[in-house]
Amino acid sequence: MNAARTAGRSRLATYFHVHLVSDSTGETLNAMAKAVVARFDGVIPIEHIYALVRSDRQMERVLAEIASAPGVVLHTLVDRELRDQLEEGCRVLDMPQIAALDPLVGALSRYLGAALSTRVGAQHALDTDYFNRISALDFAMAHDDGQGTTEQLEGADVVLCGVSRTSKTPTCIYLAHRGIRAANVPLVPNQEDGERLVGLKNPLVVGLTVSPDRLVQIRRNRIDGLNASHTSAYTDQEAVRDETVKARRAFERRGWPVIDVTRRSVEETAAAIINVLNERRTQRAGANW
């Protein structure tokens, strides 16, 4: 009986407050917190995000909110006085506080023998990389779902090709945020077979595949969301199987790298594409020596 109760309790989620304090946008801190919490099963954070904290008065309000919801405090503060204020406030509240980037920054500083920058939000500066990402995002939107001529697609770093619902668009958007100019062309039975991509010289063409069973499920969910009928070949098991088999054969015949997205998140698919893209760039650079 006691064992059963213990087992039942072990399945309950553990909630805790996590306070994320940043003098910039808070994106870095939020991503780090999510990555760390994901390592724990059954743990659900209640996030309190304080972005653009750059004055004593703002820090006072932050500490007041932290006091009202005790938990863990993570920060990426650069300003020494604000850090001291937060650390002292957490000490008084007897609450753990962690400078999330300190171990990495310290190790890199020792390795490089370089002084640290005290400029707030340095990673978000309006530099060349920033404008490249904006340009890549514009390119992805303008060349989504087969838009653009073959000549225009030559301006891409990578072109994704696959049947409908293989996460082509979200993957292109994710790649754009990494500064990669990505376009996508859907394979549509009796309409688009991807042949126009064969002659592309600059971009890497990548084929995306997915298991037929998973694809049917995704498409049915899509149809349900639109309150439409399931009677078309779009969701027919055999038709979908035939569609995916033909797509994979076309990719292999053309020598394109193929990525199966069945059990991959958009981030994982994008990471795999970036790896292939980097390998290709390395090979091209070696050939030019």
Q: Topology, please?
A:
Blueprint lengths: L1 H9 L3 E8 L5 H11 L5 E8 L5 H13 L2 E5 L4 H13 L4 E3 L2 H11 L15 H15 L7 H4 L4 E6 L4 H10 L4 E6 L16 E6 L2 H14 L11 H18 L3 E3 L5 H22 L2
Parallel strand pairs: 1-2, 1-3, 3-4, 5-6, 5-7, 7-8
Would you write up a description of this structure?
With 289 residues, this protein is an alpha/beta fold. It folds into 2 domains: 2-123, Response regulator (Rossmann fold); 128-287, Rossmann fold, CATH 3.40.50. The protein has helices at residues 2-10, 27-37, 56-68, 80-92, 102-112, 128-142, 150-153, 168-177, 212-225, 237-254, 266-287; strands at residues 14-21, 43-50, 71-75, 97-99, 158-163, 182-187, 204-209, 258-260. 25% of the residues are buried.
Q: What is the element string, with H for helices and E for strands?
A: HEHEHEHEHHHEHEEHHEH
CATH third-level topology of the largest domain: Rossmann fold
User: Main beta sheet: strand number and arrangement?
Assistant: 4 strands, parallel
If helices are DSSP runs of H or I spanning 4 or more residues, what is the number of helices? Answer: 11
Rg estimate, integer Å = 25 Å
**How large a portion of the residues is in β-strands, by DSSP E?**
15-25%
